[in-house]
């Protein structure tokens, strides 16, 4: 937990609760509390299971190759809020965030699923419950319009009042079963080489 106060609307207030910058790290039933930039998921292959992550703006950010499974993403505050700012910078980088069987909750008038902090962010939500806190556009508009062609924002069989794709930004990927398959398993983070067997907890 980072106990720094919530930034006022429009003000910068980066205050990390945790940064992970090493390879082969797994977190089970952990809770992360903060506001702006709660979790710096920065480098390496990472696994989050049965966790809870709370924040306001870019509250999961960095260059990690990470699988979030059965994790709750909770938005607090109001005004402009964004869950992810994934920092992939080219098509050749093997990183990105995938959220599988997760749940998005919160208060306020709407939160974005992600934004293009860097040029090639890769973020996928699959089988995720999205409450009405999710902005109908889904993803934050790119300040650099060239990024419209380089971002990879995927949604697959999500549900709930915030999951409807009719008003999504046009560069949202409505991935099909074949496209989404690599993002759903431990293979995405090379888990068979370091994560199995899972710990007993």
UniProtKB/TrEMBL annotation:
Main EC class the enzyme belongs to: hydrolase
Pathway(s): Glycan metabolism; pectin degradation; 2-dehydro-3-deoxy-D-gluconate from pectin: step 1/5
Keyword field contains Hydrolase: yes
Gene3D superfamilies: Single-stranded right-handed beta-helix, Pectin lyase-like
Superkingdom of the organism of origin: Eukaryota
EC number: 3.1.1.11
Keywords, comma-separated and alphabetical: Aspartyl esterase, Hydrolase
Keyword set includes Nucleotide-binding: no
Domain Pectinesterase catalytic: 11-191
Signal peptide residues on this chain, from the entry's feature table: none
Entry's family note: Belongs to the pectinesterase family.
The protein's name in its UniProt record: pectinesterase
Record organism: Brassica cretica
């Amino acid at each position: 937990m980072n106990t720094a106060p919530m930034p006022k609307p429009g003000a910068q207030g980066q205050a990390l609760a945790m940064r992970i910058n090493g390879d082969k790290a797994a977190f089970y039933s952990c809770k992360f509390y903060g506001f702006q930039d709660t979790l710096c998921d920065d480098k390496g292959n990472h696994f989050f299971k049965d966790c809870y992550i709370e924040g306001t703006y870019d509250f999961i950010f960095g260059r990690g190759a990470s699988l979030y499974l059965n994790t709750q993403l909770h938005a607090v505050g109001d005004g402009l809020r964004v869950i992810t700012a994934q920092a992939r910078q080219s098509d050749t980088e093997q990183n990105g965030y995938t959220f599988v069987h997760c749940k998005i909750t919160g208060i306020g008038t709407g939160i974005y699923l992600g934004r293009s902090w860097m040029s090639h962010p890769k973020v996928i939500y699959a089988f995720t419950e999205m409450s009405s806190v999710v902005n109908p556009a889904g993803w934050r508009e790119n300040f650099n319009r060239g990024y419209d062609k380089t971002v990879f924002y995927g949604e697959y069989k999500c549900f709930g009042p915030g999951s409807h794709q009719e008003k999504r930004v046009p560069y949202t990927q409505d991935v099909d079963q074949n496209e989404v398959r690599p993002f759903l398993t431990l293979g995405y983070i090379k888990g068979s080489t370091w994560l199995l067997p899972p710990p007993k907890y």
